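2024-03-11 09:14:02 INFO worker-7 job=invfold-0412 stage=load source=structure_tokens
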């Protein structure tokens, strides 16, 4: 019996739930990158980057191609890039709402009831 769709979605989002993996996907949204190009951009040890790239490969979010001794990574689908763009838009809206709330709190007079 196959897993319910909501469970598969949860596993998918768990895969995305690591800052290094998100940063890798952001870089690959622009163009393919060799591991050596990603290292200075991401700022982690090579072994840690390799581990995170393996997770993304197992989830079929990235693919590799070899040119000599250099391994290049790219996204398997442009929808991955679109998902990151949508996430950014959602976060921008959330943070804008929080900034408005903070401004309201700062402008409230001491001892007054906060706005509803």
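2024-03-11 09:14:09 INFO worker-7 stage=emit residues=116
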């Amino acid at each position: 019996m196959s897993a319910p769709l909501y469970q598969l979605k949860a596993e998918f989002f768990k895969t995305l739930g690591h800052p290094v993996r998100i940063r890798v996907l952001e870089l690959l949204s622009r163009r393919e990158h060799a591991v050596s190009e990603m290292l200075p951009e991401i700022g982690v040890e090579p072994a840690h980057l390799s581990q995170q790239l393996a997770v993304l490969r197992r989830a079929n979010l990235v693919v590799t191609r070899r040119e000599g001794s250099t391994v290049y990574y790219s996204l398997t689908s442009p929808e991955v890039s679109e998902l990151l763009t949508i996430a950014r838009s959602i976060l921008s809206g959330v943070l804008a709402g929080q900034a408005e709330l903070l401004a309201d709190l700062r402008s409230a007079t001491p001892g007054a009831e906060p706005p509803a």
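2024-03-11 09:14:09 INFO worker-7 stage=report msg="The CA atoms of residues 62 and 75 lie 4 Å apart."
2024-03-11 09:14:10 INFO worker-7 job finished
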